[in-house]
Design goal:
This protein is of the alpha/beta class and about 200 residues long. The protein folds into two domains: about 70 residues, no CATH class; about 100 residues, Rossmann fold (3-Layer(aba) Sandwich), CATH 3.40.50. It starts with 9 loop residues before the first helix and ends with a strand. The protein binds S-adenosylmethionine. S-adenosylmethionine (SAM) binds next to strand 2.
Length: about 200
């Protein structure tokens, strides 16, 4: 069974939060995701999953807009604690302290949101990430979000970079590519260095 890479387990991630090595934290929903969320139809009440959600500003934003079926999954307790503290009325049953690779697909999701989770996984897990996202989505469901299109060099720990062409190969077996281009309106340090993706499960 696919699972977390041993070196980057729950203790590793909780330790990064505890020691303040959390430079990925944008302290709010990022502009490309906010623009996409603002176009979603709340009346449809899609089932939305945010894996590796961290402090989950996306979940907070969607919840405040009236989306009722937003699920966040993370292996670090701090991630879920922070969301619950900021948003006390967020449904406790939708805070999943769980390994993304072990999440069940019944019921499936309409939308999965990617924000600095893919880059947190050891690169050897990338094919499994694409497979698991496809497994969790219903046919026609959407994976959207941001992927670093950046070479971070030979690093020993996350974030791990990569390129558009490398990523395309992981997702092509399962998805139709609706959008796979350099993001506009990225946060300043990420400008020109990340892709906005919107992929439809075949
Ligand atoms: C780089 S952080 C990004 C957090 C958040 N998406 C953000 O942008 O602020 C990666 C997150 O993924 C979580 N994580 C790592 N491996 C995981 C796994 N296998 N399943 C679920 N969460 C995982 C970590 O605990 C951490 O909160």
């Amino acid at each position: 069974m696919e699972t977390v890479f041993p070196a980057f387990d729950a203790a590793y991630w909780q330790g990064r939060y505890d020691s303040g090595r959390d430079g990925w934290d944008a302290h709010g929903v990022t502009p490309p995701l906010r623009t996409y969320f603002d176009q979603l139809d709340v009346a449809r009440q899609p089932r939305i999953l945010i894996p590796g959600a961290g402090r989950a500003y996306e979940a907070e934003y969607l919840h405040r807009r009236g989306f009722q079926h937003v699920f966040v999954a993370d292996i670090a307790p701090e991630a879920l604690r922070a969301l619950a503290a900021r948003v006390p009325d967020f449904p406790a049953g939708q805070l999943l302290l769980a390994d993304f690779f072990a999440l069940p697909n019944d019921p499936s999701y309409d939308l999965i949101v990617e924000q600095t989770f893919f880059c947190a996984l050891h690169p050897s897990l990338r094919p499994a990430y694409a497979r698991q996202v496809a497994h969790l989505l219903r046919p026609g469901g959407t994976l959207m979000g941001l992927l670093f299109d950046t070479d971070f060099g030979p690093v020993q720990e996350p974030p791990f970079g990569g390129s558009k062409e490398e990523y395309r190969a992981y997702f092509a077996p399962y998805f139709d590519f609706r959008h796979f281009e350099t993001a506009t309106h990225s946060l300043k340090p990420r400008q020109g260095r990340e892709l906005f993706i919107c992929l439809k499960k075949q």
